[in-house]
């Protein structure tokens, strides 16, 4: 997934001192951190691809069982659901994603992944936690330990979800379709965090009220034509020329049909046609990624793509039987919407525990996250929030500030977050949010 980058340069100078409100959790977590970092290094060294997280799920399920949770495995193929009931009260869902990426690691870490796998593409590749899901899982286990130790401080039901296949946008939906909200307590609140390759000190929390991440659509366009010899183009209907016209015209959907105040992206990521210099192919293939926030904006973009492809083909003189074929991949990843009042409520709790310097409101991005599905499945019942934790090491921040050296992004083979600060902050943030949402009556 893509990550958001706060714009305020002042973030670079933030301190990480925690106020007294967080010390009760900090003291306990300090004792747990050596074990959590050992877990993190193990997860980092042994990543698994989407829907293949069998070993990862099994080792984390064992830990959750040892903490006293009721654990169900293989939910949505490889997902794990852990439930702890602790009297009458709200139901809070905490989520972490488990899958790695088909990336050959180049961080140079002593525990760097040497795993390989063959994804759906059929090409054997290295596998790496290049998106930081290993920090999410370690922080998740840290939060579970803190909450299990503090059952006398909260009241309600805790549902902790280890989700597969976030990287392909299918894991949350798979768990929901496998009865997540029917087989287990439906949450009143759903919370998750994601590490960030952001220009902010590691351990800084960022939150975004409202739309935080985008609808993600993958669109394929097959442009048809009449092939022939490159020396006699008049005998052909060149699909490359037509596809080129489509690519250029697509950009006007965003620039001239979508409101400038409504963010939208149409990117052509792949253009393929032909195999030889002097042969005009009879087909060209385009692959697009399309990003939006609202359902209305998404519909405008997708319908516009279909209209432009057909219109350019008509202008090129193609008959009906040679009209372009536009295919929108289904299912898609819906936009992530953080309930504004809920986001500010949780952020206020973070500020009380971590201090104002460590909690910042950050702008939305056009990346995607299928955490959105947990709210979308029951929008009238579930309030949700995904927040960010910067994992950018101090050395990278110094190089950015003094030399202008760009930060490696998530999904980069060089992304190596300051895992200890991400894990510690994530564990405390998840646990403290749950404690604030499930106060013990009379406590």
Overall description:
The protein has helices at residues 23-45, 54-66, 133-149, 171-177, 180-183, 239-257, 295-315, 340-354, 372-376, 394-403, 419-437; strands at residues 70-75, 79-86, 91-97, 116-117, 125-126, 156-163, 189-196, 205-207, 210-213, 215-224, 228-229, 265-273, 279-280, 283-292, 325-328, 336-338, 359-361, 383-390. By secondary structure, the protein is α+β, with helices and mostly antiparallel strands. A hairpin with a 7-residue loop joins strand 4 (116-117) and strand 5 (125-126). The radius of gyration is 24 Å and the shape is elongated.
Supply the key terms.
single chain; 443 residues; alpha+beta; eight-stranded mixed beta sheet; 18 strands; 22% strand; disordered N terminus
Q: How is this structure best summarized?
A:
This protein has 443 residues and is an alpha+beta fold. The chain has 11 helices and 18 strands.
Protein topology:
Elements: H1 23-45, H2 54-66, E1 70-75, E2 79-86, E3 91-97, E4 116-117, E5 125-126, H3 133-149, E6 156-163, H4 171-177, H5 180-183, E7 189-196, E8 205-207, E9 210-213, E10 215-224, E11 228-229, H6 239-257, E12 265-273, E13 279-280, E14 283-292, H7 295-315, E15 325-328, E16 336-338, H8 340-354, E17 359-361, H9 372-376, E18 383-390, H10 394-403, H11 419-437
Parallel strand pairs: 3-6, 3-7, 7-18, 8-17
Antiparallel strand pairs: 1-2, 2-6, 4-5, 8-18, 9-16, 10-14, 10-15, 11-13, 12-14
Helix pairs in contact: 1-3, 1-11, 3-11, 6-7, 8-11
